[in-house]
Every structure is written in C-alpha cells, then in structure tokens.
Amino acid sequence: MERHSTPDEPERRPRGRPRAFSQRTEQNTIKSLDRALVVLARLAQVESASLSELAQSLNESPATLYRVLTTFALHDIVEHEESTQTWQIGANAFLIGSVFLRRTSLVDRSRPILRALMERTGETANLGVKNEDAVLFLSQVETHAPIRAFFAPGTLSPLHASGIGKVLLAHARPELLERFLSANLEQFTPHTLWERDALRADLEKVRARGYSVDDQERNMGMRCIAAPIRNAHDEVIAGLSVSGPITRVLSEEVATLADAVIEAADAVSAAIGAPLSPRPG
C-alpha cells in the first residue's frame, strides 16, 4: 500500500546513504569488492593478460584472481579467450561505462563540432579531460586518411606529453601544477618536455596564445594542436585537439590549424554554457 505524507508531516526524501553512514572510508568499503575492482582496472590497463601474468603484476594468488575473473565473466564484465588463454574486458563493462558518457552533455554537444573540425582540417579530432595525472580521451572523430592518430575512448595519455594535457596543465590551479612539476616526469622521445623549467616555460606560452602543441613529444612523427574547453563558470574542464603525422601537420601550418582548433573549442564551450571571453593574442 502506497503511503503519502500528511499536510503536517514533511515529505520524506530518498536517501543517498544509510542513516548511520560514517564518513570514514575504511568503515564503508567491502574489501573483496575493492580487490576485484583493482583487478578490473589492471586488466583494462593492459587490455589482455593471462591469469599468471595478471597474478604476477598484482602480486595476488592465481586462485584468488580466478575466482574474481570468473565472477566478472558471469556478468560479461570480462571475457576469456580460449585460444590464447587470456582475459579481456567484456562487452558489459563497456555498456556500464558508456553511461558516464551519456550523462554528460560535454560529449554529446562536442560530437558534431569534432566532426566538423575533422572535415575542416583533414585530421583526427579528439576530446579529453584530466584524470589524475593523465588525459582521459572521451571521444574522437578519425580522419579518412590511411595514416592517422588513434585514441580510443578510455585511452589515457600523460599530461606533460599530450596537447590536451598541456592545455589542462596550463590552466590548472597553481598548487596542482606545482605538485605535478615536482614529480619525476617520463621522457618518451628526444622532444619530450620532461624537465621542470622547460615544461613551465612551454605552459606559459600555452596560456598566452590560447593553444598548445605536442610536437613529437609522445610519439615520434606525430604532431597535435589543442585548445581549452570552458564550462559555465569559465573554468577549463576539457581540451579539444587535432592530431596527425608531421608530414601533413606541418610546422608552418600550426598557427592556421590552431585557429580552427580554438574556434571549435570555443564552440563546444558555448554549447555547454560558457561565457564569451576574448581570445588571447
């Protein structure tokens, strides 16, 4: 029988947590579930692994991991490839994860703009956000050219060696930027800006001109140009970029391509409610 509140009784709101909820994290976690999610995250990172490889990388017993994996497999969260005896992320993991993309207007609003940018520049267009010390790619529209950049949704890339990453770093809060710069950054190519002073100087240029350039800093032979996306509070929450081989994304054409990228990023910003602001330069 449905119960209704009386005029003198306030309507009860649905609760997001139990009445006796404690803010202390260690009292509100399920250790076995926590361990299982660590396994799932590791499998997503390596994409494919045998039971023994996964056990070794996580320092867990194969028997424990097998129970975790078979439980996930019952729900199609992971899959087992019999021919290679390896485990991979399953289809249902994608369906669950895709809810994140559907709940944010950023991905939906940016999609047609990414497509238009790809058609205008002839290069792959990308959308990414900050995820701890990496860029998380949310969406991509690939070029029709046979040689292309590819960052599947869910791909992570280091902030300091990514066009979008450097845009996000350039607009990060000072304390977060200083923490990042104090870490030991990895050098991927001879062009990677992994030394603190060199990276700091480059980020100052990014803020001044309104776009960043990843010039073979993560992968030799690839160049990327990125610009910031702002929300309704005028905060930089994402980045948009075009990327392609240096044989097509020529150094003398970077400024022209940057104009197209900035216009596209501004269009996405406007679509999600950002206030109009003058461009740097």
UniProtKB/TrEMBL annotation:
Taxonomic superkingdom: Bacteria
Basic and acidic residues composition-biased segments: 1-13
Protein name: IclR family transcriptional regulator
Keyword DNA-binding: yes
Keywords: DNA-binding, Transcription, Transcription regulation
Segments of this protein annotated with the region Disordered: 1-27
GO MF entries: DNA binding; DNA-binding transcription factor activity
Domain HTH iclR-type: 30-91
SMART domains documented for this protein: HTH_ICLR
Cross-referenced InterPro entries: GAF-like_dom_sf, HTH_MetabolicPath_Reg, TransRegBhcR, Tscrpt_reg_IclR_C, Tscrpt_reg_IclR_N, WH-like_DNA-bd_sf, WH_DNA-bd_sf
A GO BP annotation: negative regulation of DNA-templated transcription
Start and end residues of each IclR-ED domain: 92-274
